[in-house]
């Protein structure tokens, strides 16, 4: 069965960095685009970034552009989110999610599998 | 960026009721819209994609419609397990965006 397991969350000071990982299993990871979505405490969902199945394209929310980098290692079935220059407003549960559409490029049909989330708290 | 506005933001209803949630986009997004259900402390669950296609395993009491700028999610007969928060997401252009959510509570 499809599983996505995030790790790497924790408490970090403003301005510091953190790298999240998402270990995928139960499907051909290299065939699917992957997303990061976050949710601040008590707030709604915010899309963060996407990386295409082959890593050829990446897109970001305006709120994280220039500070966060999404990447993947298809040989390790793992998705990453490098977060630099962290701010208090980046505090959230971060979810990795699989694109529903196989070999999707610009087309997207939403995210059909999600991890359990990992909490990132940015605080001094 | 494309903005999505859901209405209402809060909805109180009873088991067996028919409810409709609306999602309006700030510009046309064709049918590139998905609906999710989220329960407290859980990850979102995909209900509908391509505006009106039911995701596998989702009960048929859920349905979606619309195209362009106006979309609806309808639950034909509310069940106790349907009380949750619902989000729409546009997938027409990056950055993808979510609506602010509709919280559905038991009356």
- Mean pLDDT of chain B, as a whole number? 97
Q: Give Rg of chain A in angstroms.
A: 14 Å
List the secondary-structure elements of chain B in sequence, H or E.
EEEEEEEEEEE
Low-pLDDT segments, ≥5 res of chain B = none
Describe the structure.
The complex is a heterodimer of chains A (124) and B (107). Chain A is an all-beta fold. In chain A, strands 2, 4, 5, 6, 9, 10 and 11 form a 7-stranded mixed beta sheet that branches. Chain A is globular, with a radius of gyration of 14 Å. The mean pLDDT of chain A is 97. At the A-B interface, β5, β9 and β10 of A face β4, β5 and β10 of B.
Q: What is shown here, in short?
A:
The complex is a heterodimer of chains A (124) and B (107). Chain A is an all-beta fold and 124 residues long. Chain A has no helices and eleven strands.
Give the tags.
heterodimer, A: 124 residues, mainly beta, 7-stranded mixed beta sheet, 4-stranded antiparallel beta sheet, globular, B: 107 residues
Question: Any chance you could write out the topology, listing elements then pairs?
Answer:
The complex is a heterodimer of chains A (124) and B (107).
Chain A: E1 3-7, E2 10-12, E3 18-25, E4 32-39, E5 45-51, E6 58-60, E7 68-73, E8 78-83, E9 92-102, E10 111-114, E11 118-122
Parallel strand pairs in A: 2-11
Antiparallel strand pairs in A: 1-3, 3-8, 4-5, 4-9, 5-6, 7-8, 9-10, 9-11
Chain B: E1 4-7, E2 10-13, E3 19-25, E4 33-38, E5 45-49, E6 53-54, E7 62-67, E8 70-75, E9 85-90, E10 97-98, E11 102-106
Parallel strand pairs in B: 2-11
Antiparallel strand pairs in B: 1-3, 3-8, 4-5, 4-9, 5-6, 7-8, 9-10, 9-11
